[in-house]
Design brief:
Order of helices and strands: EHEHHEEEHEEHEHEEEEEEH
Shape: globular
Strand content: 25-35%
CATH topology: Nitrilase/N-carbamoyl-D-aminoacid amidohydrolase
Distance between the termini: 47 Å
Organism: Streptomyces machairae
Structural class: alpha/beta
Largest sheet: 6 strands, mixed
Number of strands: 14
Pfam families: CN_hydrolase
Radius of gyration: 18 Å
Family: Belongs to the carbon-nitrogen hydrolase superfamily. NIT1/NIT2 family.
CATH architecture: 4-Layer Sandwich
Strand order of the largest sheet: 5-4-3-2-1-14
CATH superfamily: Carbon-nitrogen hydrolase
Number of domains: 1
Keywords: Hydrolase
GO molecular function, one term: hydrolase activity
Length: 265
């Protein structure tokens, strides 16, 4: 399975429409790939809180329309990163969209863990509550977004739901690059899955984004790592490795789920 992570430069110098055109062009260039991945909130800007109400869109809005067409034209599965989604009741969500080779929307995931503590995403957006996996012709994809990486319970949930490959779009801060590199490898290794983590680059709303998109195999080996500029990272993933590594090192079968809390019986 061939996958490409398109590490878009997201800064304040261009509009959402310009980014859509640029992203669609880069996706169309990946004809022959099985999966293409874009970063988190690349249309609105992950750190541009003040513009989220203005730039929010429905799940079938302009970004979905453009990305559906690009997936169909390239003949690839397309993880279109995430958008600021406005629900019918007005609630905003950080929502990932996954399209199949025909351009049909096959997966939608609303980010469960919202970053910001008492500001930004944590106060301006609603949180999702569904674990989302999607079967494809090359394996089962699990969906997560950026800050989710810090919460292993979600990744265990994706594992239990059948995930063989987990895709993580992000706009991770450059100041915490070492955390990004450690957490992506850890999640791949502990769940024995392929992990594709596509991070934005550039500076947006005063925040320098890390870049360094990562592709990691179930052994925790880095198959490829991007730099800090806009680029496309392409890797080949042997999906048979998932079953083989889980068989050769069957740590997952030794999980003990019924551990009592302190003071419990």
């Amino acid at each position: 399975m061939r996958a490409s992570l398109i590490q878009l430069s997201v800064d304040s110098s261009d509009s959402a429409d310009e980014r859509r055109r640029r992203a669609a062009s880069l996706v169309r260039e990946r004809r022959g790939d099985d999966l293409v991945v874009l970063p988190e909130l690349w249309t609105a800007g992950a750190w541009a809180y003040d513009g989220w109400q203005r730039d929010a869109e429905e799940a079938d809005g302009p970004t979905a329309e453009v990305m559906s067409a690009a997936a169909r034209q390239a003949g690839t599965w397309l993880h279109a990163g995430s958008i600021v989604e406005r629900d019918a009741d007005g609630t905003l969500y950080n929502t990932a969209l996954l399209f199949d080779r025909s351009g049909d929307l096959r997966g939608r995931y609303r980010k469960i863990h919202r970053y910001g503590f008492d500001t930004g995403e944590a106060t301006l957006m609603g949180g999702g509550d569904d674990i989302v996996t999607v079967p494809t012709d090359f394996g089962v994809i699990g969906l997560a977004i950026c800050y989710d990486l810090r919460f292993p319970e979600l990744f265990r949930g994706l594992l239990d739901a059948g995930a063989e490959l987990i895709v993580v779009p992000a706009a991770w801060p450059a100041a915490r690059l070492t955390h990004w590199q450690l957490l992506t490898r850890t999640r791949a290794l502990e769940e024995q899955v392929f992990l594709l983590a596509c991070c934005a680059t550039g500076e947006h709303a005063g925040m320098r984004q890390a870049g360094h998109s990562m592709a990691i195999d179930p052994w925790g080996t880095v198959l490829g790592e991007a730099g800090t500029a806009q680029e496309t990272l392409t890797v080949d993933c042997d999906m048979t490795q998932v079953a083989r590594i889980r068989s050769e090192l069957p740590v997952l079968r030794d999980r003990v789920l019924a551990i009592a809390a302190p003071g419990g019986r």
